[in-house]
Amino acid sequence: AGAVQKTADVYLWMGDGGGRDFSRLEGTPWHLYDIASGEKAWSGNLEFRMENLVEPGFEKDFTMADVWECDFSAFNTPGEYRLVVEGMGTSPVFPIKENIFEEAFKVSMQGMFYQRMGCEEKPNGGFPYSRRPLFKQGVEPEDFVVYISNREMVTGVNPDNRDWYAEDLSGEIVEESWGGWADAYDNDQRPVNFICVFDILLTYYLNPDAFKDNQLYIPEWDNGIPDIIDEALWQIDWWLRMRDPGGGYLTGLTNIKAPETDVNYAGAACGWQGWCVAAGAAMAADCFRLAGNQELREKYTEAALEAWDWAMRQHDHMLDDRASGLRGRDLKMTAAAFLYNLTGESKFEEVIYQESEAKDPSSRVKDSGTFEQQYASVAYIFTPQKVNFPELQENMKNIIIHQAKTDHLGKTDGSPTRAARWAVSWEGMSQTSNEMSLVAIAHKITECHEEKEYFEQGLYYEAEWTLGRNPLGLVQMTGLGDRAVTQTFAPGRRDGYPGLTPGWTPYMCRDGWNNSDDIHRCEWYTNRNYPDDKEIWPWGEHFWNSRYSVPNSEATPQQTFRQKIVLYGYLFGINKLYPRRL
Ligand SMILES: [Ca+2]
Ligand SMILES: [Ca+2]
Ligand SMILES: [Ca+2]
């Protein structure tokens, strides 16, 4: 039930034996066995799907084998099943049920919770605390001090490099610096991760009625705020809290390293951060408009207007500086678009027009890593205010639908694994950075039934890949079911609870990033392969269930967490609001 798409891929890479040829089994009967009754519930015949190839867009061969398939998309009876192919074997037990993405969505959100810094409360659901120590002034360590650097973190060096920030200090300290999310397993807090706020709020924005209070494994229960917004506020409130004595918005914190754990350094305030705070606070306020929460709508609108005014007063507006693809001008446009929705002031609509790439109908609304206007465009497409630039709004819709087809769905027909995600340039993320937000938006805005089905199918392809329809049969994150990643370079080993922190999606990088130290060297693993030629291994099998290779098993929320939140959260949302035929 629910899924438009239910298929099992049949293939096998046999090491130096190459891909298994199943052609003699083509047409072989297969069956779904109902576990409860022990009866056959549905049957079909094995069909050829595609010859092995290097996947277009990714330039990777994920399977190293031809692919056959069992398609039971038409079968919709809830229950527990095994797929049995005669003469071949049987799958593990799997469920067919309503809204199968609920738990996947909740675990992907736990990924963010366990990046929280300074969170004193225990989460709901019997899970451990997030990061310790808290690094909270007056609490832990009690004499914790954060000095303000004269150097900002948007154009500055990686904040893992503490000394660079420490050697040029303003002489001031930060009153309160707790909150926000850590960068990775290490605990610097930097602008490249700030984009996570926008993807989390986008997930809410597209299906607001699906997201409620008391829904996630977080501490903020019974506060009247949808839990997904609570998680985004953990970062936004940190941005608002962490100011310099002149009211400037500080750009992050460096990586605290033992033995110097009672001191840290904050990046200087700068124009880009002003736009970022204005955009995040305005988007949160507009989410509260949709949630009908007048008090918090006003609170975050005021915070956004204050940040907007502060950014306008800066001598350098940093409109072309970027972090994680978000340029200053994209953030300014995002702030303006949500502030237009909230205030109806024409000056904000004019900024949307001025900054939008979509004035040119052949342009794009996003180009990951380069520019990012999808959040602003969504705000304007769904604006409750008068639309004075109808052509711009129409261009935005058409561009999103076009990009969803060309950047995403257009790849699936030529892909043995039906890859629909954005093809990122870094190999480590080629299979676990499942960026599908534009397809989710396109699904929301199209009025054409065939397009809706097409986009929905792409979202399912990608969700299936991450949840087990891959060569390792692996759930590509920690904490979800018995096929999930269990060993990776993630926190949670010393928290008194079994296992690592949930919701961690490793990069699954094969070749590393050229560091020569052993914890980075992927060669340590690939040199121990049999067969020893790593070039004949399927990319889909490049995960070593081990904690010791950082490029293979570490992660950052901006690179591999936020994409799954949008993907599972969107599928959860539409299945909750519009349950499919049974
Ligand atoms: Ca770091
Ligand atoms: Ca809540
Ligand atoms: Ca643990």
Strand proportion: 5-15%
User: In whole angstroms, how far apart are the ends?
Assistant: 6 Å
Q: Measured on Cα atoms, how large is the radius of gyration?
A: 24 Å
Helical fraction: 25-40%
How many alpha or pi helices? 15
Bulk shape = globular
Structural class: alpha+beta
Q: Please describe the biggest sheet, giving its number of strands, its sense, and whether it closes into a barrel.
A: 5 strands, antiparallel
**In terms of per-residue confidence, which ranges show pLDDT below 50 for 5 or more consecutive residues?**
none
Tell me the total number of β-strands: 17
What compounds are bound to the protein?
Answer: calcium ion
> Would you tell me the overall average pLDDT?
95
Note the main attributes of this structure.
alpha+beta; 5-stranded antiparallel sheet; binds calcium ion; 3-stranded antiparallel sheet; 582 residues; single chain; 15 helices; globular
Topology readout:
Layout: E1 7-10, E2 29-34, E3 40-45, E4 47-50, E5 67-71, E6 79-85, E7 89-90, E8 94-96, H1 102-113, E9 145-149, H2 162-166, E10 169-173, H3 195-206, H4 227-241, E11 263-266, H5 271-291, H6 294-313, E12 322-323, E13 326-327, H7 328-343, H8 346-355, E14 366-367, E15 371-372, H9 374-381, H10 390-408, H11 437-445, H12 449-466, E16 475-478, E17 484-485, H13 523-526, H14 550-553, H15 557-577
Parallel strand pairs: 9-11, 16-17
Antiparallel strand pairs: 1-5, 2-3, 2-6, 4-5, 6-7, 6-8, 9-10, 12-13, 14-15
Bound molecules: calcium ion (3 copies).
